[in-house]
Fold each of these.
Amino acid sequence: MAKIDMGRARFKIQRRLGVELPGLGKAGALERKPYGPGQHGMQRKKLSDYTIRLLEKQKVMFHYGLRETQLRTYVHKSKKIKTASWVDTMIVTLESRLDNVVFRLNWAPSIPAARQMVSHKHILVNGKVTNVPGYVLKVGDVIEITDTGAKSGNYLQAKTRPRISSIPACLNKQTVGEKEKATLVAKPLPEDIPFAFEKRLVIEWYWKIK
């Protein structure tokens, strides 16, 4: 029953935000009901500037499975790096997280499932168990799945019904024997984020953070 409730919650999140978030692992939310949840979901209403910025920020937060405090930390760190766009810097970092890479390799059906696999020590980085979902991979790092991980329900589900059919060009995936491994051959690109969002609105939401 808990799984059903969680699935419904993920549908409602995507319908409220008006976008499919692959990281939640639930496809078809907008196809089933292309409007917001609740009895007033079909009514069109004008959103305030505050709400528009809030929803845009929440797209990033919910897709990557972050709490507000975690996202604010990424914003703070990204702003300290002198680049043309701190939002691009943040997205590159989030796309480099181990749980996200496991998901993008189609080794897990969602980012929460990928996080579980990492926490349960089903993933190796450079031959060593790494059970920190937020570990940020570097170019040249090699990611492998353990024998136990390759037999897990999350992995088998992802292989049967991959949430995203293609993987980013920054990842080079190979099959060794009966198992898969991958190398991060380049930094992810900001464009690798698998859903549409307005960077400007996220910048405006967090403009006070130094």
Amino acid sequence: MITLTINGLEVSVEEGTTILEAAEFLGFPIPTLCHMEGLTPYGACRLCVVEIGEGPGAKLVSSCTYRAEQGLKVRTSSARVMKARAMIIELLLASCPQSKIIQDLASKYEIRQQRFRQEYEDCILCGRCVRMCEEQMMAKAIGFRGRGQNRSIGTPFDIPSDVCRQCGGCIYVCPACTLRCTYTEPEKAICGGCANISPPCIQKDSFNDLMCYMDPCVACEIKKQ
């Protein structure tokens, strides 16, 4: 067993457990997008970022791929982590502005503007569909193509795959293929129609972490009323 500390609480987990799994065991919410139970961790979206270590040596890592280490100190909702997640959500909105999943994340993290050039690519390269096709459907009908800004998902040379069974599993797990937000003007990347109140505790100078990890926070819900 490995002992580590998450948000000040000591926990023992089996060797090979990821930080995300350990945090979920304790009930600490960590948002994920590319991660999905039953599929190999990929760490593409970086939304599950957490802070490990202390002082100047502390760094941000993706919790879905980082394995727990003996004596590791983890913070899942520090001010630095929340700022990084907000930036990531803005970048996701630039690629897929009308995904309901991403819209909901933007509302939850109080994103009110999207400062990057709008792409409307409708693919965030999370790799869910590729892993679903290979690991659950045993088909390998689709995969990644190209590199950098030319990276995309599809079949080689855009030729229909003869091993594709038209199961629809790739569409089922795709965050970009979910029901669109009812706001129908994509130029306004964030509708805010279902926005939540931001956690008041982390915005005070005396707190650098969330005071509680309830989702939703009871204090925030009372304040909203």
